[in-house]
Design a protein that fits this description.
alpha+beta, two-stranded antiparallel ribbon, about 100 residues, binds iron/sulfur cluster, about 10% strand, single chain, about 25% helix, Alpha-Beta Plaits, globular, two-stranded antiparallel sheet
Length: about 100
């Protein structure tokens, strides 16, 4: 089980969540280990359609990222994301880190 970043993050990408994460498990939109630094360096306009993702293998489900998100894009687990109609984001979070959600 892991927190999941949903589609509301697309084109927002302010990286506030990545800065709040105590285990450094939020990355993207391109670099799987960069904590969103490419957005800070190049601006979100350089990544149209991009979003950040949570590494499900590393997330400790602490919730620290949730209040930081200005667009309420972060779901507390996969089931909540799916019930909200955002199953695609569940798979995207896993697949970004080379994982598969079963
Ligand atoms: S729930 Fe905690 S560990 Fe998981 S992504 Fe959010 S801040 Fe990081
Ligand atoms: S705080 Fe929200 S919108 Fe910003 S990068 Fe994180 S999930 Fe995306």
């Amino acid at each position: 089980m892991s927190f999941i970043i949903g589609k509301s993050c697309v084109d927002c990408m302010d990286t506030a969540c990545a800065n709040a994460c105590p285990v450094d498990c939020i990355h993207g939109p391109i670099n799987v280990g960069g904590s969103g630094a490419e957005v800070a360096a190049q601006g979100k306009e350089a990544f149209p359609g991009g979003q950040l993702y949570i590494d499900p293998d590393t997330c400790i489900n602490c919730g620290a990222c949730v209040p930081e998100c200005p667009v309420s894009a972060i779901y507390e687990d996969e089931d909540i994301a799916i019930k909200a109609g955002d199953e695609e984001s569940v798979h995207k979070n896993y697949e970004f880190f080379g994982l598969k959600y079963a």
